[in-house]
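User: Hi! I have a protein structure encoded as tokens and I'd like to know what sequence might fold into it. I'm fairly new to this, so please keep things simple.
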């Protein structure tokens, strides 16, 4: 298994777990062995080797080491034996534990499952309290059933003006540290009266966050945002996992996704959501076979997040139907214009 050689999470930014997910995406999209080997070679060039943990993790002390990356290997070994969740939130590090667990279910991989749980344990941080402590689920002065209404309100709220002077991952933690109440106001404003229909809408909005904000940001010129793509890929993972989650926990998982997405949107300077740029985009005669081919032989076929985004779009179209070719248009637009990731400035 990939993670038996490389660390699941590397410090500070190398992400060994990406290879497992791009290999899974490429495999499901039909890539052949030669291309899968090429992906492995490209992704493994700069990854860190596994290091032994200071000690084992047991069912008696597994919570003592949450958030300590030195215990990654110990957690993977622990979950290999236990393979239980114990209520660990899955939205850390831009949702990567959730994405990893989604691939575990899709590929029926016990190994990926224990890696996902080990990742969640190693990345355990301040975000857990918003799901663990019900006091953070507060009533707000207004409620909305559509995410577009909330995004529009956030975009127009001048209390967010000048919080940050640039985009980037560093904004995320500062947002919760210094403006928690403001984030929670909007997080709690989404009323989930019809979770299935509203989750369908969330996948559409996640698509717009990726393909309908390109070129609109204050500091980027026609570039796709690395952090916003995670709204789409985590939404896909949530869709895979939801049928396996007890009904009383399903809304909690959707709300976790919404908290991540909302915070990323604010951290990336609240770009305008331009759905029309997708709806009016022509498919140019291209179909899903053409798009999938780009993930196998195209210029960006070894870029983990590019491949995962394409697959998430394709699966959304398959799940909800695509009579107006919304997801196909988004994929054609994304494939044709993509030239690397932005959003780090």
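Assistant: Happy to help. Inverse folding works backwards from shape to sequence: for each of the 345 positions I chose a residue that suits the local structure. Here it is:
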């Amino acid at each position: 298994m990939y993670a038996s050689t490389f660390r699941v999470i590397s410090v500070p930014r190398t992400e060994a777990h990406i290879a497992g997910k791009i290999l899974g995406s490429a495999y499901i999209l039909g890539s052949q062995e030669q291309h899968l080997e090429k992906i492995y070679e490209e992704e493994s060039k700069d990854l860190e080797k596994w290091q032994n943990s200071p000690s084992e993790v047991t069912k008696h002390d597994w919570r003592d080491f949450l958030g300590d990356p030195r215990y990654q290997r110990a957690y993977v070994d622990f979950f290999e034996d236990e393979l239980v969740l114990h209520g660990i939130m899955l939205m850390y590090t831009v949702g990567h534990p959730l994405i990893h667990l989604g691939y575990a279910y899709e590929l029926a991989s016990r190994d990926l499952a224990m890696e996902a749980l080990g990742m969640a344990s190693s990345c355990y941080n301040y975000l857990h309290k918003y799901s663990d402590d019900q006091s953070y689920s507060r009533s707000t002065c207004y409620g909305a059933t559509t995410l577009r209404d909330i995004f529009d309100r956030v975009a127009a709220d001048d209390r967010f003006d000048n919080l940050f002077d640039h985009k980037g991952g560093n904004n995320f933690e500062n947002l919760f540290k210094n403006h928690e109440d403001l984030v929670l106001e909007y997080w709690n404003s989404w009323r989930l009266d019809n979770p299935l229909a509203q989750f369908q809408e969330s996948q559409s909005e996640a698509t717009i966050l990726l393909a309908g904000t390109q070129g609109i940001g204050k500091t980027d010129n026609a570039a796709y945002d690395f952090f916003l793509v995670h709204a789409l890929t985590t939404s896909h993972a949530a869709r895979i996992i939801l049928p396996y989650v007890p009904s009383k926990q399903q809304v909690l998982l959707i709300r976790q996704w919404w908290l991540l997405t909302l915070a990323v949107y604010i951290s990336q300077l609240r770009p305008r959501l331009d759905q029309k740029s997708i709806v009016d985009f022509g498919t140019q005669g291209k179909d899903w076979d053409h798009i999938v081919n780009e993930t196998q032989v195209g210029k960006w076929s070894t870029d983990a997040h590019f491949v995962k985004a394409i697959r998430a779009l394709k699966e959304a179209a398959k799940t909800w139907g695509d009579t107006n070719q919304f997801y196909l248009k988004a994929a054609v637009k994304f494939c044709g214009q993509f030239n690397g990731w932005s959003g780090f400035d």
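A useful reference point when you look it over: Confidence is low (pLDDT under 50) at residues 1-19, 83-88, 216-221. Feel free to ask if any position seems puzzling.
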